[in-house]
Amino acid sequence: MSLQGKTVVVIGGSSGIGLTTAKALVDAGAHVIISSRSEERLEEAKNAIGGEVEAYSLDVTREEDLKRFAKRTGHEIVKFEKREDSMRFLIKKSK
Fold it and tell me: pLDDT, tens digit, for every residue of 69-82?
């Protein structure tokens, strides 16, 4: 499957499953945006992935961080719910 010309956001893309997913997406031709709380780990991940990848520091538990991330990447927050034990958010591509 080719993802040429597509942009994919991977939250938690600096390690583990997120990093592996980001690598596979780049190999499939996607432009990948990864995020993580650690700028140092993001830089390491970006170098490990290679290809067309952007990296942004992001704490998904902070609504302001999500809004800033969405704006910088051409997306918008459609929904954000934070509860005592969980949270949900939906990001979509801006028009």
Answer: 988 888 888 888 88
